[in-house]
């Protein structure tokens, strides 16, 4: 019995391996050799991520000399070497090529609120209040210390975001409330209440039992929208 089981398992593995090989061969793009050749011709060798010199990045001055926006991707979130390399490149782009804005895939409101309040926050606070958790790393913390230092030197690297997800721990309501309390405490309190009510709605939507009636949802959302419209009108009327 055991021998039959082993033979069956080995046969299955061989069949699966052969099947996988066929699939891999079929899925290989026809133009892959062309891209492999392109990579060989255009790839640039870089120093170690923690290198102290930047000569290896000098090719950027020619490659992107007329580019307004540079995209820095990553093969995975949180990888030390990738973050180190990007931070090193960001510093070079700022100091040597004059790029003065860094935009993360994070909340637009949160990032801009942190940028406005950098002087009152530590680098760690600024990072955690502006970015999603996947970027809460030692390497990105170094970048935020650099952002703070550059602002103090008068050569700011402006922080912003290009996402608009709702976050229960959002820093923006705290920032906006503190700002508006000096002008109108009632409106400032409305921001805090509206954010809490919106969070409660999201909790009901995502609850396991999912017993949140649609009509009730519409009524609750309209109340929150009314609060935000009131806040927006106030800000527009007092925009200096």
UniProtKB/TrEMBL annotation:
GO terms in the biological process aspect are:
response to antibiotic
Keywords associated with the record: Signal
Entry superkingdom: Bacteria
Q: Does the keyword Magnesium apply?
A: no
| Gene3D superfamilies membership | EreA-like (biosynthetic domain)
Q: Where is the signal peptide?
A: 1-24
Q: Which residues cross the membrane?
A: none
Entry protein name: Erythromycin esterase family protein
């Amino acid at each position: 019995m055991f021998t039959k089981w082993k033979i069956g398992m080995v046969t299955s593995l061989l069949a699966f391996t052969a099947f996988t090989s066929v699939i891999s061969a079929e899925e290989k793009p026809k133009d892959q050799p062309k891209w492999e050749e392109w990579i060989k011709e255009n790839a640039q060798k870089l120093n170690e991520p923690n290198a102290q010199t930047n000569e290896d990045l000098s090719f950027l001055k020619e490659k992107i000399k007329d580019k307004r926006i540079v995209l820095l991707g990553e093969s995975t979130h949180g990888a030390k070497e990738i973050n180190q390399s990007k931070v090193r490149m960001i510093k070079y782009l700022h100091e040597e090529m004059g790029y003065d804005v860094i935009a993360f895939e994070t909340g637009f409101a949160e990032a801009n609120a942190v940028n406005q309040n950098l002087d009152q926050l530590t680098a760690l606070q600024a990072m955690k209040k502006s970015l999603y958790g996947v970027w809460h790393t030692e390497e990105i913390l170094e970048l935020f210390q650099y952002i703070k230092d550059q602002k103090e030197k008068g050569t700011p690297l402006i922080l912003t975001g290009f996402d608009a997800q709702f976050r229960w721990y959002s820093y923006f309501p705290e920032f906006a409330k503190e700002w508006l309390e000096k002008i109108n405490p009632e409106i400032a309190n409305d921001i805090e209440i509206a954010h809490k009510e919106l969070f409660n709605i999201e909790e009901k939507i995502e609850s396991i039992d999912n017993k949140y009636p649609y009509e009730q949802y519409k009524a609750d959302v309209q109340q929150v929208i009314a609060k935000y419209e009131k806040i927006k009108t106030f800000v527009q009327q007092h925009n200096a």
